[in-house]
Amino acid sequence: MRTCESCGNIYDKAFIITLSNGDQHVFDSFECAINKIAPHCAHCNSLIIGHGMEAKGTFFCCAHCANAESHFAVDRLSDA
Predict the structure, then answer these.
(1) For a designed S-S bond to 2, which of 9, 14, 46, 64 qualifies (C-beta 3.0 to 4.6 A apart)?
(2) 17 in a domain, yes or no?
(3) What CA–CA distance (Å, rounded) separates 54 from 74?
(4) Is residue 78 part of a domain?
């Protein structure tokens, strides 16, 4: 039995997510995992749960938000 680090639920089916830097996190649901470790869009602050995009080290949920930042000129997701 492990304790979810997001909601505190003690659950026998909790799972561990290991990030690329070796940090490990315990969650009881994907909802808790997303809310705890998903990045936020630098423009609209939405949780990025899909592919999103990165431009010059900044994360965005979509090309529209990247373009909304005047110092980014991103027309398509593949341009990031």
Answers:
(1) 14
(2) yes
(3) 10
(4) no
